[in-house]
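seq as requested:
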Amino acid sequence: MIRIGHGYDVHRFDEQSPPSDIRLGGVDIPAPHALLAHSDGDVLLHALSDALLGAIGAGDIGEHFPDTSDEYRGADSRELLRQVYRQVTDAGYSLGNADITVIAQTPRLNTHKPTMKSSIAAVLEVNADAINVKATTTEKLGFVGRKEGIAVHAVCLLMRSPAQ
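struct tokens:
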């Protein structure tokens, strides 16, 4: 049996902050501003977490790690993703693949994609070929084009684990 999940997340830049590293896919990347967030703001891992939770019918990241809880203030999204993936494996599934699209006018991500892919694979303890990271702009249209924030779409395919 296979299950498909889709995740989407957005974080806005804190335009009052100086240039700062942002975290995407568990990788620190220089950016013009920090991202506003309750946790570490890893919009990529948030979207992937939502895709995984959606595939097993377990709601969304906000239900599991609410931004109203001080427990998750500044949380490392890699740890949140580990917890989500534990729910996936406890439900009897494993990751077939994940395809992730980062939509950002800035920063430029091409040189960081291989590192993000490896980072995500390490968190999920899967082979790196199961992870694909793409990046695109919006041709200067909309909030992303105005460099106000970053959006991410993530899709995953889960397969029933062989022992299930």
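The domain at 2-160 is CATH 3.30.1330.50 (60s Ribosomal Protein L30; Chain: A;).
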